Recover the amino acids of this structure.
């Protein structure tokens, strides 16, 4: 495709017909360009958002979060009903957590999964019914477990043998009964379109399948622990059904074996549903994915002659990822000559402090001019941040209008998940606010940091 002119463009990135287009799979449904070409999100122009709240700015489309949450709930309800079971959906709060999101997703009928004491406190501060929370983590402290039991967290997902004893001591001291699941490591690891299945997966989460019967026997011995079932999570940014099926098959072998010792009403298959970051990502609609996964579980149960358990799932990225768009202001631009052609570096006023995913995982994003539509043809750019680090990349490869200039607003879509959640103050760059937009209204849901915040913890400053 790029053979005519030498270019540092990767093979997967085609030159778009229109470098101002908004690929629907990547953007929130409310993203449009007005008659002048300005990007609008949730009914509000990008320029107005930037004027009011500054840049960088994390914009979150509330309607999009709610629609995706209810679509997951409806899709899994329908798929489960087809197979005479039920399905619960937990929003995985690690993707992005604040009290507003907790309220939105719970309003839409989702439960919430938290994985630290801090996440638990955010959910509680939102007024969440603790019974609708799941509590994860491979190293929950005694204090975190005590707090979870005290507030009545619905399900604690036990990760290891030590945790059983910690919980046993707590429930015996407090005279409570706690519902628990056991997280197992199915040996299946999935990422994008492929999955890898081994007998022993080399990672820190969960209990290996072979050890699980012993741990389940111990849980069953403890009076105050009520075993709901097994849990497994195979990875993140997964496309298709195959990885879920393979993992479910392995866990159902164990589930079947354990039925000899008592009822096991539930099975949690975790999260990991992939989303579109660039135009090459093609996620399947949740309706067909849910139908495929639940049918696969039903078939595996039928093959073993066991009843299909009540199912649960824990999507994080797929609920909030495409609802988030980051607005930046373009600063310096430079053309760097390489052996393979010219690479244009476009710097923006944020970077790896508000989106660490490219630096951490080599993650790909896309970008579009937001303050206006560009007039010129497409030019290959690399969008970089303002941090003192060469790996401070925001968008590795993108085609943007060649007339992009300092002062333009640039929008990076699909930043709702694991961007604000992983943000830092590296180089003492304040973290941006999160502004919710919906039907022409905008409001701050997490305020941005100020210089006062940046200095607040420095004990060497006289106050
Ligand atoms: N359940 C459990 C037990 C998990 O560990 C995770 C994610 C999820 C659910 C939600 O997965 P999701 O549906 O969001 O893929 N920071 C990385 C992703 C880390 C995922 C950790 N666990 C990234 O930015 O790609």
């Amino acid at each position: 495709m790029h053979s005519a002119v030498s270019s540092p463009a990767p093979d997967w990135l085609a030159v778009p017909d229109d470098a101002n287009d908004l690929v629907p799979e990547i953007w929130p449904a409310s993203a449009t360009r007005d008659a002048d070409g300005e990007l609008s999100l949730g009914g509000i122009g990008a320029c107005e958002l930037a004027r009011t709240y500054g840049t960088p700015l994390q914009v979150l489309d509330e309607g999009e979060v709610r629609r995706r949450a209810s679509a997951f709930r409806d899709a899994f309800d329908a798929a489960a009903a087809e197979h005479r079971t039920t399905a619960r959906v937990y929003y995985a709060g690690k993707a992005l957590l604040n009290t507003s999101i907790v309220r939105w997703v719970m309003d839409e009928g989702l439960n919430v999964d938290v994985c630290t004491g801090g996440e638990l406190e955010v959910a509680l501060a939102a007024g969440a019914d603790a019974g609708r929370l799941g509590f994860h983590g491979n190293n929950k402290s005694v204090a975190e477990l005590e707090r979870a039991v005290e507030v009545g967290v619905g399900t604690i997902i036990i990760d290891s043998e030590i945790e059983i004893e910690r919980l046993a001591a707590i429930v015996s001291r407090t005279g409570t009964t706690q519902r628990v699941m056991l997280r197992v490591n199915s040996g299946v690891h999935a990422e994008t379109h492929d999955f890898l299945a081994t007998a022993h997966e080399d990672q820190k989460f969960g209990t290996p399948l072979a050890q699980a019967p012993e741990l389940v026997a111990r849980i069953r011995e403890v009076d105050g622990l009520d075993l709901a079932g097994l849990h497994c999570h195979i990875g993140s940014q997964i496309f298709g059904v195959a990885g879920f099926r393979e993992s479910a098959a392995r866990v159902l072998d164990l589930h079947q074996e354990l039925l000899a010792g008592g009822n096991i009403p539930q099975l949690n298959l975790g999260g990991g549903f992939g989303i579109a970051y660039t135009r090459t990502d093609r996620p399947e609609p949740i309706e067909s994915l849910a139908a495929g996964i639940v049918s696969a579980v039903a078939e595996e149960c039928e093959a073993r002659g066991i009843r299909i358990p009540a199912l649960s799932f824990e999507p994080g990225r797929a609920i909030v990822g495409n609802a988030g768009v980051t607005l930046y202001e373009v600063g310096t631009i430079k053309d760097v000559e390489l052996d393979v052609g010219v690479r244009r570096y476009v710097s923006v006023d944020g970077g790896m402090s508000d989106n660490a995913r490219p630096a951490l995982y080599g993650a790909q994003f896309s970008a579009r001019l937001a303050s206006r539509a560009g007039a010129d043809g497409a030019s290959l750019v690399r969008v970089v941040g303002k941090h003192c680090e060469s790996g401070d990349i925001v968008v590795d490869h993108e085609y943007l209008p060649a007339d992009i200039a300092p002062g333009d607003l640039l929008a990076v879509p699909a930043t709702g998940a694991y961007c604000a959640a992983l943000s830092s103050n590296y180089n003492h760059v304040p973290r941006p606010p999160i502004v919710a937009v919906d039907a022409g209204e905008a409001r701050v849901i997490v305020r941005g940091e100020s210089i006062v915040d940046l200095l607040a913890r420095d004990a060497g400053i006289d106050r």
